[in-house]
Design goal:
Layout: H1 6-10, H2 12-20, H3 35-52, H4 59-85, H5 88-91, H6 98-124
Helix pairs in contact: 2-3, 4-6
Length: about 120
C-alpha cells in the first residue's frame, strides 16, 4: 500500500481542480509550471488558518459544518454516479445489473431521507 504524507493530503483539492480544468498540477512541479495549483494550494492553507483564528469561534462547529455540508451534497453526487455507471456508451459491459441498481437506489433513497430529516430537524428545532 502506498504511503501518503501530509503534503499530499493537503494538495488533494487543488490537484483535483487543476486536473478537472486540464491544468498542470502537483507538488513535484515548479511555480512556473503549475501556478494555478500553487495559488490554490496557498489560498486554501491561508483561508483554513484564517477560519481557525476567528475569535470566540467554536472549533468543534468549524469541524462539524463541513461534514454536514458533505452529507447534504452526497445524494446529488450519488445520483450522478449511478447515472454514469448505467451509461452503456461510457461503461460498456461494466454497467450495473438490475440487482445492483436496486441496492444502489435503495441506498441513495435512505441517504436522501436521512439528509432531509437532518435538515428538517436543524431548521425546526
Amino acid at each position: 500500500m502506498k504511503k501518503t504524507n501530509q503534503v499530499q493530503k493537503v494538495s488533494g483539492t487543488p490537484q483535483e481542480v487543476c486536473e478537472a480544468f486540464g491544468l498542470e498540477a502537483g507538488i513535484d512541479k515548479s511555480w512556473e509550471d503549475a501556478p494555478v495549483f500553487y495559488w490554490l494550494f496557498t489560498a486554501l492553507i491561508f483561508i483554513g488558518a484564517l477560519v481557525v483564528l476567528i475569535p470566540n469561534a467554536s472549533l468543534i462547529q468549524i469541524m462539524l459544518w463541513p461534514q454536514v455540508i458533505n452529507g447534504a451534497l452526497l445524494p446529488f453526487v450519488l445520483i450522478f454516479m449511478v447515472k454514469l455507471i448505467n451509461n452503456k456508451d461510457l461503461m460498456g459491459d461494466y454497467t450495473n445489473n438490475w440487482a445492483y441498481n436496486l441496492i444502489t437506489w435503495i441506498t441513495v433513497g435512505i441517504i436522501m431521507t436521512l439528509t432531509l430529516l437532518m435538515l428538517a430537524t436543524s431548521i425546526f428545532s
